[in-house]
Please model this.
Amino acid sequence: MNELTTLLLSLAGFGALIGFVVNLLKYLGVVKDGQAKTWVTFFNLVLLVALFVTQQIGIDLSAFDGFAAVIAEIGVLIMGLLVQGVGSKAYHTAMRGVPLLGKSLSNE
Model:
């Protein structure tokens, strides 16, 4: 079990994927403020059980760590673009009509 815990701690790709999933769930409103640590712990426990089970049947789940890292990177980029787009639209709506900041030149 000790080597399994060491393996879990060395899987940075899965860690990044778990972080991304929890942040996505926060953005969607599934994870509330103050619950992120609980969700991360839950996903890490699921990963630990999955590592144990796959190790028992002869499958090396750690081989997918790099793939998990790539999924996390792509997910963070897409989520960043979505948040930026929503944020820009919200900013424009909030600043509409404010002198200098909310000036529209499209009708001139």
Helices lie at 2-10, 12-27, 36-56, 65-95. Residues 23 and 29 are 10 Å apart (CA to CA). The mean pLDDT is 83.
